[in-house]
């Protein structure tokens, strides 16, 4: 038995913030951001939190899968921006959608969060522990951003995507995940757990900080390496893959990965122009867009890949 995606859904907030809007608050330009990243605009949450966005994406995925919330055994939410320290976002979502029989928890792997959560659900399903799961990536990264820091504020946006997965004879063909905690400080954000009662230190809120070039170098090296290993393990060639759905951080990263595999860029769909980097939301958001546009056919081989803070990176190969 393996794990098959039987429904997808997504949600983005209504409010659009363009590069030109950001040029009003930091020294940047539409031309700079587009040429360096491929990003033109992003959605920013005003009233929605991570769990609310996730629940909306989840409802759409359940509706498409024709699965009732009560049939869900497991809810995994990939996020690094939960609305609360506790309860987990996944538990909140359970309450919102009425998935009363599910066990629920969050997975913290930043922009790899969705892929790590999907692979974790696959481990449970393929071992027979659970049958049907809801896997979600949702982040409101806008809340962690220092909006005076032009090197990070132009890159990110808010959004969520979800999939319903169930045990089936075809679906996930292989997974690969890696982490490198020694390089964690190149992309980091302080938590409010840095206070100390005995030392009389109050917690301080931290903003995201990033060494952009280090993250870029990491992504263009590790992502193709990871996908390459996955393809080797599953004995599938890059040419046989219909689509590579890669975390939407930067168009130049995607171009570099396509070049490495010597496959046409047409196999690398993108939507970062409209949403920026939505962290854990990015891969399922694009997957849902592709699915609803009818671009995925039964039997297509698809690679999903995420990478981000931790450092973390991983991939999933599946047959649609
Ligand atoms: N607008 C205009 N200029 C900017 C800018 C902005 N938004 N951000 C940075 N710059 C400036 C820098 O200050 C620097 O100026 P200087 O030469 O006078 O010092 C110049 O542009 C070049 O900066 P650099 O950091 O070398 O640019 P870059 O080509 O590496 O592009 C990133 C910067 C952030 C777009 C790129 O490094 C990147 O995409 N890294 C990966 C980030 C990522 O994907 N993070 C998420 C991973 S999940």
TrEMBL record:
Q: Which GO biological process annotations does it have? A: fatty acid biosynthetic process
Please name the InterPro entries in this protein's record. ACP_syn_III_C, ACP_syn_III_N, FabH, Thiolase-like
The residues that cross the membrane are none
Q: Report the residue ranges that make up the Beta-ketoacyl-[acyl-carrier-protein] synthase III N-terminal domain in this protein.
A: 105-181
What's any one GO cellular component for it?
cytoplasm
Where it mainly occurs, coarsely classed, is: cytoplasm
CDD domains, per the entry: KAS_III (cd00830)
Q: What is this protein called?
A: Beta-ketoacyl-[acyl-carrier-protein] synthase III
Task: State the organism named in the record.
Answer: Clostridium porci
The organism's taxonomy opens as: Bacteria, Bacillati, Bacillota, Clostridia, Eubacteriales
